[in-house]
Design brief:
4-stranded antiparallel sheet, 32 strands, mainly beta, 6-blade_b-propeller_TolB-like, Glucose/Sorbosone dehydrogenase domain-containing protein, Quinoprot_gluc/sorb_DH_b-prop, Neuraminidase, globular, 31% strand, 5 helices
Amino acid sequence: MDITFDENGNYYIAEAGGHTYGTKPPRAPEARILKVAPNKKPEVFFDQVVPMTEIKEEDSSEDMEEGLIPPVTGVTFYKGNLYVSHRSRYSVYNLETGEFETIINGLPSWGEFLNAKPIFKDDKMYWFLSTQGNSGVIEAHWVRVIDQFNKPEAREIPGEDVTLTGQNFWVPTSKVKLTEADSIRTGAYSALGDTTTAGQVVPGEKIANGAFFVSNLDGSDIKRIAWGLRSSFGYRFSPDGRLITTMNSANPMPPRGLMFDWEPIYEVVQDEWYGWPDFYSGLPITNERFGVKKEERKFVLTPETHKKLLKGKDRPRQPLAKLSSHSATQGMVFGRGNMNIPETNILVAEFGTIVPVFKGEKFHPNRPPGVPPESEAPEDVKYNWPGFKVQQVNLSTGKATDFIYNKSGLPASADQGGGLERPIQLEWDKEGNLYIVDFGVVEFDDTGMNAHPFTGVIWKVSKK
């Protein structure tokens, strides 16, 4: 999932562990941190994991024992410590004393999207807490995660008081232990099975989903920067000090799915609301671009709430760039001159589509009902395996160009040709080499998303 380097030339690899989606075989390797010393083989550095039985028994990670809660999503070296992001927690490993301590705990992160890697500036820690689901209401994949962890009360948390329109949705719930029903009616910002009414107010909280935060290095004095974002694994400070983030697009997951959302790149600005769960890539969910079924694309927040959160603006802050629909942008870094990449440009790891129809007719000949053929999709949309590569993005123009990719345009597993599979994170070492963390093989079928263990790769890219 991630890689970082200390001042002595050692590097540390965060392995996610199981319990993110499904895995094949059913049990994935446990979450852990590996250490690789110069000219040495990888060794297990830290692998203390909270038992799954305890995770299921306790309502909050604050009540669980010390250790990793899978998946691990990031690791960052800073001033003698490894800072580790994992489900609902941020923890610190002191490289001098060997002490492991959780410094931020109990985050609302029991969905399919998670809290992401910490980054640092001026002795402050910056971090992102993703939304737990796709578009404000629990969906089928999130139901499976809730079922696996036994967290039936999980729901999205808004950053300010929001008033609901009373939209409720039939959430698919087949093949889970939580209920025998095939679907359960559920509202936005609500736990599974809780319906909402027009005019209902959901109280906001400081620790909200879809938000950026800054804290002291010990996890104290947490302040929120902005919210109304969706899911990000990649954010860095630009040379001129701006916080820039990738954003993973919304997916066509029932019951409130979107088609053809872009993968936006944003500047994160203090006290902004970026529009989620009613705006995507700067556009309202009601925009014709996103739709297959109009009834699934109504606002869940009232116009008065939009006006309040937008502070009088007609729309949220717009993206700096919009990358290909459903290419699944993840980690990012700013450029380095030794690779002929301007320092104001970014490199973006594109995990690659998980939406089967985007694999084209050869690999997925049967389109779901209501999904148009490529010829009738928006002009910029192609069903040609978007993602599975590293792109360079000019933030001034918004233009993206391929930087590292397979000649076939396919992931290695699709054509057995070798090369990149699903890039998820990027990092530079002090010599200016680029490291690509490749998650490995992930399939999407009738049982959901399934990751294949032992298929991940670390790629090192050097200039000749």
